[in-house]
């Protein structure tokens, strides 16, 4: 087997691995996102309840899905580094399609008639209270149309913004300052992603006030940026692992080609 074939296989394997991790984390984030997490309760603290705009307040409440969302954008940056904007666009459109497909399957799953023995076996909760497991299942997994539209739109727009900002900064930095293009693209793209889904799902298609959108969006945005900064060493570690896998010369070649894509 010649070196060209080996390099082609390594390039394909790398894209498959990165894309699989990207899609898996994106889908998990969307599926688990219905639960709102209180970070204060994790540490046994009372809600911050800081005065914000109007009658709204700021507390560390956010969707559980947001916890792993920075991983999606880190993987997006790595894909951009080696496969260019075209690679990110390709996997982003696939991701949006997969999210839409998942929502469709989940909808039919929640609408399917439950088996009687399943309802009977789960008719009470651990404390002996009456419990409708089919209702709970549907309530947890069902997403309103506004949330579905908001999720897909914010995901796709956020990814494309991240890809183009990353590409612009890379043109300025070349092979240097990976942290700058990774963090810089995340700062801009997450600003779009954090607020766009809330605006579409809960303001335009829901019953939230603009102040509530800004309060929740701000907390989610701060969390994502803080985590992106903390994960900077992870990006360098992934870069080093990939360079070792591809070989330094092939890695630099792919990055140079990626700048033009």
Provide keyphrases for this structure:
Arp2/3 complex 21 kDa subunit ARPC3; two-stranded antiparallel ribbon; globular; 4 strands; mainly alpha
Question: Which helices and strands, and how do they pair?
Answer:
Elements: H1 3-32, E1 36-38, H2 39-42, E2 50-51, E3 57-58, E4 61-63, H3 69-111, H4 116-121, H5 133-141, H6 145-173, H7 178-204, H8 210-230, H9 232-246, H10 248-258
Antiparallel strand pairs: 1-4, 2-3
Helix pairs in contact: 1-3, 3-5, 3-6, 3-7, 3-8, 3-10, 6-7, 7-8, 9-10
Explain what this protein looks like in three dimensions.
With 261 residues, the protein is mainly alpha-helical. It has a single domain (3-92, 146-258), classed as Arp2/3 complex 21 kDa subunit ARPC3 (Orthogonal Bundle). The protein is 75% helix and 4% strand. It contains 10 helices and 4 strands, in the order H-E-H-E-E-E-H-H-H-H-H-H-H-H. The chain has helices at residues 3-32, 39-42, 69-111, 116-121, 133-141, 145-173, 178-204, 210-230, 232-246, 248-258; strands at residues 36-38, 50-51, 57-58, 61-63. The strands form 2 sheets. A two-stranded antiparallel ribbon has the order 1-4. Strand 2 and strand 3 (57-58) form a beta hairpin. It starts with a helix and ends with a helix. The relative contact order is 0.14. The model has no long low-confidence stretch (mean pLDDT 85).
